[in-house]
Design goal:
With 62 residues, the protein is of the alpha+beta class. The chain has one domain: N-terminal domain of TfIIb (Single Sheet), CATH 2.20.25.10. Strands 1, 2, 3, 4 and 5 form a 5-stranded antiparallel sheet that branches. Strand 3 and strand 4 form a beta hairpin. The mean pLDDT is 94.
């Protein structure tokens, strides 16, 4: 995924920063506890497409 794109992308809900998890192809919003999928290097920034992070995943991010 393009590094320049990662610099400008924010969570569509809270407008906060996102963390890119390359191995699982997801953009993570810690405050909203959501993971947005990245498909074919295209971030899918729709709330309906995001999955909620589990408590275990949130702990791993700390």
């Amino acid at each position: 995924m393009d590094a320049r794109l990662l610099e400008i992308l924010v969570c569509p809900i809270c407008k906060g920063p996102l963390d890119y998890r390359k191995p699982v192809q997801e953009l993570i919003c810690r405050p909203c506890r959501l993971a947005y999928p990245v498909r074919d290097d295209i971030p899918i920034m729709l709330e309906d497409e995001a999955r909620k992070l589990t408590a275990e995943e949130i702990e791993q991010l700390r």
